[in-house]
């Protein structure tokens, strides 16, 4: 009998890559290449600290005071981040996800988000993780509105990529030409600012040093396949992260407030369909009509 608090552990592998995805939240708990960790992991019988590997649905990041208006009605979500009086990272990251398909290199998990007082909408969700010897990990998130009214929607994810050493000596590249400054409660403080001339400009790779970042980037430069790339390079290894065009926002977090033994050992790289507090600003918020589906993909690879 499985009595792990993160539930069933779904292990997949392909070539040099290995991954473990948990029943709890359909979270990415481990990802390795040739036994080298590509993300910060956590033990199977401990809850994910600092949102390690979690999926953020139906909104990423924060909603100010947990309150928003949609379709002419005002809703109040539970305050899941009392420190800043915010609702943070959605509603499904601790929920059990059902196993739909499992192959040696692929797992598909599903969840049904039913209505609640703060989010009276109904969504059917899918999270698909696939490993490939050349491409590494690809993750596809999908949501279908199975309710009777339009639903506000956004999603994200919260892996921390690592090269096995402290961030300070690593070289980092971030593809965004604008970033969101935030107030002391981590809510956006005005429109996106140009990174040019600021400490947030990592369009050309440079050493991170002791700089602290916890900001969303946009204006992402992309390759011919529509992917925007983040590269974290240490003394011996590079770990790369990509996100598709369905994710115009990218939160970067230098892990300054996570558990002390892992602090600044990994970089939070969070693909987002919308910026923080989008349920209030409306920026890139998805109006998911009944019967409609939204999907987006992102991935991680060595090198």
Quick summary of this structure?
By secondary structure, the chain is mainly β. The chain has one domain (about 10-300): Distorted Sandwich (Beta-galactosidase, Chain A, domain 5), CATH 2.70.98.10.
- How many H/I helical runs? 1
Q: Quick one: how many beta strands?
A: 27
Task: Quickly give the structural class.
Answer: mainly beta
Share of helix, binned: under 10%
Largest sheet: 9 strands, antiparallel
Shape: globular
Classified by CATH, the class is: Mainly Beta
Can you name the CATH architecture?
Distorted Sandwich
The count of domains is: 1
Q: Mean pLDDT, as a whole number?
A: 98
Strand order of the largest sheet: 10-11-12-13-27-23-22-17-20
Percent of residues in beta strands? 35-45%
Please give the alpha-carbon distance between the first and last residues. Answer: 39 Å
The radius of gyration computed from the alpha-carbon positions, rounded to a whole number of angstroms, is: 18 Å
Low-confidence stretches: none
CATH topology: Beta-galactosidase, Chain A, domain 5
Q: Strand-and-helix sequence, N→C?
A: EEEEEEEEEEEEEEEEEEEEEEEEEHEE
